[in-house]
Amino acid sequence: MRVDSAAMERIWELDLRLLDSINRGWHSPEADRFFAGLTLLGLDYVLVPLLLPLFFLSSTRRAALVAILSWAAAGLLNLLFKDLVARPRPSNLEMTLVASDEQIYTRSFPSGHTVCAFAIAFALALALQGKARWLAGATALTLAAGVGLSRIYRGVHWPSDVAASTLLALAVAWTLNSWIPDSRTKHSK
Question: Does the pTM of the predicted model rise above 0.85?
Answer without folding.
Answer: yes
